[in-house]
Amino acid sequence: MEAAVSDSSSSSSSSSSSWISSSFSFEPPPQELIPGLPDSVVTHSVLPRLPWFVRPRLLSVSKSWRSILERPANYINLTRRLCHTAGLLVIHQLPTNEPTTEEEEDEEGTISSADDDMQQFLRRKDYCCWDACHGQQQEFIVSSSTCRQMTTRYTISMLDTDNDTWHRLPPIHGCPSGIPARCSFVCAKGKLILMGGVPDSVREHESSEVYALDLGGGLWWWEKCASMHSTRAFSKSVFLAGQVYVLGGTCPGEVYDMEEDKWQRLPQMVDSQFFCNGVLGLDNQILAYGYDIVDPGQTTTTASDIVNSARILDTVSGCWSSVEFGHAKCCAVMDGNFIFEVVRGFLIQHDTAANLYFVYDGKLEVQPKASSEVDTKGTQSAAQMLSCQVHDLVVAERVVDCNRPGLLVYTLASLGQNDDMDNHACRSLWRAALNHLPTIATTLEPVVWEEILCPFLLTAPSDSLSQMAYFSS
């Protein structure tokens, strides 16, 4: 009897305690995003104006910030309207002595990473290598220290043109190289579209995968798009009339419809022995410039065996035509009518509508390495007299005043091919600012070239600087 009484008393006490705990348990009220400001003001006026590289750091501020940032539908449209993002994008190889934490990187004053996803990728103890050719994950595991020694890692850095600061874009999740080597990328509709390449430098398998990064919407993670029909590397791309055209490699070109997320094959080129160095979009034409090899069967190729040429695709009729040039070209297009190129160090503009050529004063002179600038007799080195070789060219519009839109011209350049390989491999980034587009009635302004400091070139090979693109939302 006493046991029953004790059991009942214990049960009643436990039930009462559970009732008390359930009655008086509460969750703390949600924390304000910014104390003193309504959350609606923060999400509609403050957050959309923050640049994309700041937002990943807000994830660790509080749960409230994380819950807002992880729902991009709440701010992505406002970001496109209120936040203007512009900058030069450059693909380059990561330094071999990459800092292990973002704090070390910032203290050294180099490049600030957009997200700790890159650091987590580098610090990961192990991960599976992805076989892009067979589309399946391999069963073996490679340690991060071993893979760091074998895999060459790449990234995309963005130069903020307002204050000349560099910011690193996040890597693609699951890509051993971070960013596929020898890929092609283009800016279209506020997004960065990345196509093909070699995601793993150890396996050397070309990829057909396509990714998009919505920088204009303030996002910092890559989204997978529909894959191309063919795997490709060393390709070039251009955005024209709402579609992305990719050419080059050993397979026919393709066109991507961003709205429908679908790829279609382009008609086969006239000659399959054409090597594409760049692609331009001109009205209803796609111009792929590069070179032909006269006799592809030769073991060695000399300058006389190369014919500089271009292939032109009429997007209306779908027919290809060809044309030859007297020199190697590296071009950029502006507004569909103006073609820019650098020939022997001089900037040349071609007005295709009026068929006029303008040659700017002011030569781009790339200096050789410091060790070879002056010889033992104190005279100028012969390498300093060589004209520069241009590897890529980008032209972007800038606002000078309300009535005169100006231009920014970016180029990757090195010494000519006649000097030693060390100087030829030392590529550098240059910029020239133009106040207005020339016409017959105006006088050409001289071009002043300035070299842009790239901190990542201090410890990484400069020959990895091969592609650029200008982003503007």
From TrEMBL:
UniProt feature, compositional bias: Acidic residues: 100-114
In residue numbers, the region (Disordered) covers 94-114
Which organism is this entry from?
Sphagnum troendelagicum
This protein's name = F-box/kelch-repeat protein
Which Pfam families would you find in this protein's record? Answer: Kelch_1
